[in-house]
Amino acid sequence: MDSPKEEVIRKRLLIEGESGADDRRIGSLLKLFVKWSESDESAEESAATYEKMMSTLAQIEFSMEKKQLINNMNAKEMKHYEVIYQKIESEINEAFDRIAGCKEELNEARRVRRHRQEYDNLARVIQKQPDRKETTKKLEELDRELGSLMENKNTLGRKVM
């Protein structure tokens, strides 16, 4: 288990990240500079303080460059994600267009199927009826029979009179 101090430090690092250390470094550098400029130290102590200030300044500059690079990288990532977003958006639109086309094809296929079923039903009804040759033959036979019956009628009508 972590001690409460370690937990507090961990939370501060998570919240502040590197920026908290930079603020402290800048504050420390400023105090060191004021102390260095106002002190009457020996040349060796003054040089050591100067080196310490330069080291702190180098750390701050390094941190600033690092953050600038991270910022640039994040900007590039955002552009990249925007390109990906646009690509996905266009693919979604294309998919919607394909879906709309498929719906039209489905409706057309349903219409064709309905027409085929109607055709099949009509074909079954037509198949139940005799073909034209047979019907024509029957009509001719019936016409002949009618003609002979008319002759019989006329003949019987003359005999009766």
UniProtKB/TrEMBL annotation:
One of its GO terms (biological process) is mRNA processing. It is found in: Nucleus. The keyword Coiled coil applies. Its main location: nucleus. It comes from the Eukaryota. Belongs to the THOC7 family. This is Putative THO complex subunit 7-like.
